[in-house]
Design brief:
Elements: H1 9-16, H2 25-65, H3 71-99
Amino acid sequence: MIDAPSFTPALETSLTNAAPAPMDPTLVVALTCLVAITLVVFALLRAWQDWLSLKRRELESHSAEKPAADDNSQISVGAARIELADMKERIKKLEAIASGVEL
């Protein structure tokens, strides 16, 4: 009959009281940096997705606000251009008067 091996008290105490092997500080720093970079990447990715969804909503709201171009809007754009040209002409006349040049 085979007897089970018996542990000696010295061997048993050395197994139970053994301190864990110290980790290499370089490994700890590398793992910490890896975790930190991963967290930053996930946060930036989430922010990017939220920014894109915000821009999509802005584009949808702007397209919903603007009615289809009709004749009245074209007339108002043309009238605005005529007014702007008239104001530029008036400014040129006023500048000429201020400098003493007769037109």
